[in-house]
Give the backbone structure.
Amino acid sequence: SYLDNSNTSMSIGGFTEGARVVDMARGYSVLANGGMYSNNTCITGIDSQYEGDLYQENQPEERIFTEDTAYMVTDVLKGTLNQPYGTGYGLGLSIPAAGKTGTTNSSKDTWFCGYTRYYTTAVWVGYDIPRKMPGIYGSTYAGKIWKNIMNQIHEGLEPWDWEQPESVELKADPRTGTQDYFSTTAEFR
């Protein structure tokens, strides 16, 4: 909606008209794929007996984020699952994964969106006509559904972590000793 143009919560999914689950999954898949967006589907073509080819081939991928940005955001989102301060702590998988919980005001909608190098899955829990769900958060039902799905579809797959781009360095803060990733190509102003 045009009302979202000045919406400060838009960057974390706060839209006037909401978001579709498929759009959330596509958004997180950009991070999983090193910053590349793909609108491809399993549909390779649609033919009409009257109009011929209506749709043919999948579209080329498009770079949305730099590779270093995607890697560093993924590193942060791994903490959601694996660090005690993470809002999805305990939802980690047996392979490297990253994710984000989401809960709207009054817990009317809850989300868990997460990904591995293999798959991206988004789960929404709520009512078609929004109503409060006290005590429900992104890490409860949505997170547990996500974890169950991801465990099943990753069964037997090798752990596959993201490769650190050459443009990313692990540096320590000289004052605190805390280590973090930094882009060697980022412009600081």
About this structure: The longest strand covers residues 109-115. The helical segments are 21-32, 67-82, 138-153.
